[in-house]
Structure formats: C-alpha cells, structure tokens
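Module 6 notes. Inverse folding takes a fixed backbone as the condition and produces residue identities as the prediction. Think of it as a translation problem where the source language is geometry and the target language is the twenty amino acids. Below is one complete input and output pair. Work through it position by position during the lab.
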C-alpha cells in the first residue's frame, strides 16, 4: 500500500511559495514600472505648468506697461508675488529685462541683480520658449522661459517660472509611498490567495501528496488489471479513457487503440451514453457483443452532484444468470416433477380405492385412460420438440396445469429442433417457462373454464413463441410496467419473470408483441442468426 509519510516540503507549501513568489515578482515589476511612469508624468506636468504660467505672465498688460516706467520693479514685484503666492506649486516667478536684470524675485533683495543659472540665453537673445533644469539662487530647479513682447511686438524682456527639484522630488516620493503601500497590500492579498489556492488544491486531491497520488494510481491500475471482470470507463462526453485487459479480451478488442475514442464507435450496443444522460445505474443487463453473451453493470460517476462519467463492468456469468437458471430451468423442472409425483399419488389412490371396492374393470379402464392420455402428450412432445430441456419443461408444465385445473393446449403446429445456434436452451427455458408461469398466475384465481395455448414453431429464419390465456388480461395502467425489474401485481411475486423474458429477447435480437384479446397474449420472434 502507499506510504502515507509526507515529504519534508508538502505540496501545499510548494504551491504557496511558488504562487507567492510569482505574485511578489509581478507586483514588484509592476510597482517599478508604475513609479517610473508616475515620475515621468509628474515631471511632464510640472514642465507644462511652469511653461503655461510663464506664458500667462508674459501677456499681462500691466507688466508690459511697467517696462516703460523708470522703476518697473515697483509695479512688477507686488503683482508677481501676488500671483506666485496664490498659485500652488510655483516656487518663484522672475521677470527680467533683455539684459537679465531682475524686476521680481521671491527675495526682494535680489531685485536689480542679474538672473543666475546660465540657461537664460536663448530666451533673452533669441526669444525662444523652453523648459530647462539649472541651479539658481534658490537651488536646483525646473524652470520655463518665455520672452515678453511690447504691444508693438518688440521683445522687451523675459519671464521665468520655476519649481525647485526638491519639491518635485517630495511629490514623487509621496506618490511612490502610495504605490509601495498598494504593492504591499497586493502582496498580502496574494499571500491569502496563494494559501486559499493551495488549500483548495489540497482538498481536491483529498489531502494526498503527489507521490501518494502516483502510488494510488499504480495500485488502481494493478487492481483493475487483476480483476476478472471487464471494466470500461467513459467521461462526460462519451469518450473512453480506461479499458482493462479483461474487457478487451471479453469483447475481442485486443490490440486495438480504444482510449480517446467515442464508446459508440467501439461498442454501439453498450448503452453507456444513455446512462450518462439519465444518471440511473443499471445492473445485470444482458448484451450480445461479438457473438458473446455478457452481462454488464452501468454505474454513473458523480462529482458534486454532476455526472462526470460512467463505469461499466462486463461479466460472462453472474449471480443473475444463476438466478435465471434457478427460476426458469432447474427449479421449473423440479416443480414439474413434484407436480407429477403429486398427480401420480392421487391416481394411485383412485386405483387403490377401486381395487378395494373390487371394481376391477373400472380400475383397468381408468389405468388405460390415464396411460393413453399421458402417452399421447408425451409422444407428441417427444416427436415435435427435439430440444430435451424444453420438452421436459413442457411436460412438467402440462402436469402442473392439471393440478391447477387449467387446460394447457400445445398447438399441433409446434415444432422445435435441437438448439445448436445462438439461441440457447437456457434462454428458451427462461422465455417459455416464464410466459407459461405468468399465464398460470393470471388464471389461478379465475373460476370457470381456464386454458393456456402455447405454440413453439421453428422456421428457416426465426423461432416463433406464442402464449395465450383466457384470463383477465393486462391492465391498461400496468401495460408499460410489466417488464420493469421488481414490478409485480402479485402479493407474493418478485417481479422478475417478464423482466427476464424481455432481457433474453433483447439479447437475442428478437421482437415481441403483446396485448389483450379475450385474455393476454405474447408473440415472440427470435432470429436464428
């Protein structure tokens, strides 16, 4: 058996570690990429903001007019500082003339001094708009330069709007902290998810480790191949995914590739797809496959209430076969012999009484009449029914019918040769015996004339079996149920007789008609080939 000692690292732990590693790696890479993208977006947004602000300031009429005054800074400085302090995220706004002399600055003491940084040349000399990063009097900053033009279009100065890189860095750091916090939260969720996934997989595998599952699979295969019954399993699409050697041998399918093929293409008469649709298990069903009479159990496989497949076990001999033989063969003939013995004893008592009364002539006549009647039926059956077991059955049933005060008429056209083909004596006994017994049961409680007519006639292609009685017939409400296993209208019945008749007729490929016509009738045709 499998070794249930677990390995040092369980499957659940391996799944958790692997899943968690994948989650951490994925989130880490995503966090880095997001951080880079956010940093780039922040930088672009800052550059766009300072450039737009510089453009707005460069077009303010008051500032343009102030360039005509003797002291432009007196007008420009308070106006610019008001704009700067009311605008979030702007560190400084500096307005200069074409010589780079400041007219505004967050530090008033630096007004009148030249602009510092070395990157102002293109704006002052060429009138270009641009954004650059340079070290100014307040520190390293990202700043935009926009030239200022007079109302007549003459370039008269420039405006520079800047944000300290230290402030930009703080904004980026705040965003990164949020990204990393979200990443840690994601890793925590991933940890919970990996634990749930590992637990779910573990439960699905019923707590087994991979090496244990492998051992179980090997043991299962060994057991399946060891049994004498043929085993075939299909999935929920009717595809074969397991067939043992016993099944291949019984069905004469050795050497053929069966796995992965539809069951209907391999064994059309298997009826496994029917079980797949109905979900109803079927036991001890007769089938003729490749000339072999077998019995099969069909059992649906369920998982969480859904059918995921069907398993079938094939057998050549089963308890049902033995029961059928007991019910319809040996048991029937034994019952017939008992009836014969009982009738013989009754007749012996009559003869003994006549002798005691010294009615010798009457006794002699009685004996001769019995002998002639018995000899007549025996001669007829022996002459026309060459299959000994069926002949013995008819003789026994004829005797039993007299015990029940039922007239059993074997029609003159009855003729049956020895059974040597696909129709076995066991099947004939099952069919004929159960039909006659069923007719006797229908007449048992009936008063007045009671008769059963039987005919067994063998033709070139078929064997005809006909049984008719003058009983109450088949009730309309039971006509669809009489062949169901276990169904009976008799208090002490087992509901198996007509079920066995139907099973044997189906296995032999026969056809059956039945109904009511002044009693019940059953007509069966069984092909000889």
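Target side of the pair, the amino acids:
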């Amino acid at each position: 058996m499998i070794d249930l000692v677990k390995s040092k690292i369980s499957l659940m732990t391996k799944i958790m570690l692997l899943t968690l590693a994948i989650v951490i790696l994925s989130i880490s890479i995503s966090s880095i990429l997001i951080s880079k993208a956010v940093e780039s977006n922040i930088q672009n947004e800052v550059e766009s903001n300072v450039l737009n602000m510089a453009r707005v300031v460069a077009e303010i009429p008051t500032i343009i007019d102030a360039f005509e005054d003797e002291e432009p800074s007196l007008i420009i400085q308070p106006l610019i500082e008001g704009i700067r302090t009311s605008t979030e995220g702007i560190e400084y706004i500096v307005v200069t003339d074409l010589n780079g002399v400041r007219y505004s600055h967050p530090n008033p003491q630096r007004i009148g001094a030249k602009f510092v940084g070395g990157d102002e040349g293109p704006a002052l000399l060429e009138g270009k708009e641009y954004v650059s990063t340079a070290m100014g009097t307040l520190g390293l900053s990202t700043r935009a330069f926009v030239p200022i033009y007079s109302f007549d279009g003459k370039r008269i100065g420039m405006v520079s709007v800047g944000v300290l890189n230290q402030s930009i860095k703080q904004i980026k750091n705040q965003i990164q902290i949020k990204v990393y916090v979200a990443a840690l939260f994601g890793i925590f969720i991933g940890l919970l998810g990996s634990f749930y996934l590992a637990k779910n997989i573990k439960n699905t595998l019923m707590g087994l480790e991979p090496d244990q599952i492998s051992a179980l699979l090997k043991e299962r295969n060994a057991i399946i191949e060891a049994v004498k019954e043929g085993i075939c399993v299909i999935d929920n699409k009717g595809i074969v995914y397991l067939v043992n050697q016993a099944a291949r041998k019984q069905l004469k399918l050795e050497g053929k590739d069966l796995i992965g093929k539809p069951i209907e293409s391999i064994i059309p008469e298997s009826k496994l797809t029917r079980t797949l649709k109905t979900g109803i298990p079927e036991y001890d069903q007769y089938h003729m496959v490749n000339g072999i009479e077998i019995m099969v159990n069909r059992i649906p496989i369920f998982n969480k209430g859904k059918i995921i497949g069907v398993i079938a076990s094939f057998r050549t001999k089963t308890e049902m076969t033995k029961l059928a033989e007991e019910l319809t063969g040996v048991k029937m003939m034994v019952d017939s012999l008992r009836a014969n013995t009982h009738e013989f004893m009754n007749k012996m008592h009559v003869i003994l009484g006549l002798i005691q009364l010294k009615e010798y002539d009457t006794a002699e006549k009685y004996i001769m009449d019995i002998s002639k009647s018995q000899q007549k039926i025996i001669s007829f059956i022996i002459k026309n029914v060459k299959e000994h077991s069926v002949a013995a059955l008819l003789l026994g049933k004829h005797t039993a019918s007299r015990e029940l005060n039922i007239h059993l008429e074997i029609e003159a056209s009855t003729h049956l040769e020895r059974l040597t083909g696909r129709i076995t004596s066991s099947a004939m006994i099952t069919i004929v015996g159960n039909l006659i017994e069923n007719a006797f049961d229908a007449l048992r409680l009936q008063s007045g004339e009671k008769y059963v007519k039987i005919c067994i006639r063998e033709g070139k292609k078929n064997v005809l079996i006909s049984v008719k009685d003058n009983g109450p017939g088949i009730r309309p409400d039971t006509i669809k149920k009489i062949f169901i296993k276990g169904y009976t209208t008799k208090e002490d019945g087992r509901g198996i007789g007509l079920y066995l008749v139907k099973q044997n007729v189906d296995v032999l490929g026969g056809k059956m008609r039945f109904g009511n016509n002044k009693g019940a009738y059953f007509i069966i045709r069984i092909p000889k080939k």
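Reference fact for the lab report: The first helix runs from residue 11 to 58.
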